[in-house]
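REVIEWER CHECKLIST
Item 1: Sequence provided? yes
Item 2: Single chain? yes
Item 3: Sequence as submitted:
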Amino acid sequence: MRNNPIAISGFLFFLITVFPSLASEQAPISPDRLSEIITGAPDHRAEFSEERRLVLLTEPVRLQGTLLFRAPGRFEKHTLSPQREDLVVDGEWVTVSLPDQNTEMRFNMTDDPLLHGLLFSLQSLLNGEPGRLAAIFTVEAWGDATAWTLRLKPSGRELAERVQVMRVTGETHWIRTIELWETTGDYLIMTIGSEVTE
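Item 4: Structure as written out by the authors:
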C-alpha cells in the first residue's frame, strides 16, 4: 500500500511543531554563546547511518558509510550500502562519484539550494563557525557544551522553497544527528557515530 501524502505531511508537521518542546528541557543558548559551545572539530573519520523517508516510496531508504572531515572545508561522505556513492565537498565545490557506474559529476553547491543548506550547515558547525548559519537560517539553540540542539529555519525564499526546517544535535564540536524536513514531505535523518579512527 502506498503512503498517503496528506497523512505523511500531517505527521511531519506534528514532528516539526513538537521537537522544539523536546529541546525545552535544555536552556536556550544566545547567538553570541554558540561559538563558545560549538568549537571547531579536529580532522576525523566516523561511521554514519542515514534514513530517508520519501513520500513516493512505501519503505524508507537506509544508507550506511563513513564521513571524513578535513579542516577547514573538506568534507567527504562515502556511502557503502545499499550502493556505493562518494560525495566530496571542497569549499563550495561538490564532486559526486558512482564507482559501480563509472560516473562522476562536479558542481557548485550553491546550484542546489537543498544541498547547499545541508552542506553549508555541516561545514559551519564542523569549522566551529555556527555564527555563519545566520546568513541563510533563522537559528534557535538550546543546551550547553555537553548536549546542544539547533533548529534551523530557512530565511531566504530559494532555500525555503525546498527545506521546511532542519534540526541538528551534538556535543562540543561533534555533530550527532541531522534531521531535514523538505517541503515535499520527504524526511532525512543522519546519525553520526562517535568513534574517531584517526
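Item 5: Key structural point noted by reviewer: Residues 5-23 form the longest helix (19 residues).
Item 6: Recommendation: ____
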